[in-house]
Design goal:
Shape: elongated
Strand order of the largest sheet: 2-1-3-4-5-11
CATH topology of the largest domain: Rossmann fold
Strand content: 15-25%
CATH architecture of the largest domain: 3-Layer(aba) Sandwich
Number of strands: 12
Order of helices and strands: HEHEHEHEEHEHEHEHEHEHEEH
CATH class of the largest domain: Alpha Beta
Structural class: alpha/beta
Distance between the termini: 39 Å
Number of domains: 2
CATH superfamily of the largest domain: Response regulator
Amino acid sequence: MSMPVDSGRRHALLALLAGWSGGSGAQQPGPIAYLTPGLDLPFWRTLSLGVKTIAEAQGLRFTALDSRNDDQRQLANAKEVLARGAAGLVISPTSSRSAVDVLDQCEAARVPAVVADIGTAGGSYLSYVKSDNYFGAFGVGQAVATAMKERGWTGGDYAMCTIALDRKNGQDRTNGFRDAMKEAGFGKEVAIHQMRSYTIEETEGFVRDLLNRFPKLRGLFVEVDKPTLGALQAIKAMRRSQELVVGSFDGIPEFVPLLRSRALVAVGMQQPFLMGTQAAEALLKGRGGQTPPKQILVPVLIATGQNVDEWLPVARRTVFGNEPLPD
């Protein structure tokens, strides 16, 4: 989903950046900063690693600041790092709305910014690096619908545990999965739970509630990685593993054996390391006076039990950030 572009402000920002390339006597630049919703999730840690890899390869310092899914903490982190003389900022905002305040701070401080993954409702920025969330979730929905039909559950109920729907990526994932289910003839969406803390425990509680309220529930989509483990714990504890098809989004090493065993039917695996490297490269291009693409789209890998081993050579680096796979 595209975001509004203020071309006049963008040209002014690029004109300012053109003078930043500096000569040998230029002052040592400040750090490249990454603002993230929460380093407790592997996805954000891997995206952070991608930004860090490019920054340090160019001899720049790097710092990551954890917003802990709090808009005000995010704004305080931005003010702090800008006051320390940040050379540039990559932000994965806590919400699309809250991103605007941070981008306004960057513009006032004359510091370039790139948005990564979670979009923004406005503001001035160099590039927006995003996954094709709609396509990825649509692919997961197709796999879930196919598995439900293979089990004879045509027309069965389904539910979703979503990320915050005030995030553009959350809207895209939800709409993508929903559209795939409708196209396949599964129009009965019985419930949506929006995550707040993004913990295993939170989603385990959500899914226990769903299973109690909807005994005929046949399909479930969980829109982020670690919370999916909580969903599977609830399903196993309530002895519903043979009665429910589960799809997920993002990717962690624990998903590999779960896909192989078909406990997960499909996962839309974003490539956070690649997103981080491309965000940092766009930021550095802007600092050098070049014009990076306004939007950079990173493909989502649709992993299933049938193809997960084919994807592994790529996924180990771009999805898992070289975190070890389970034995």
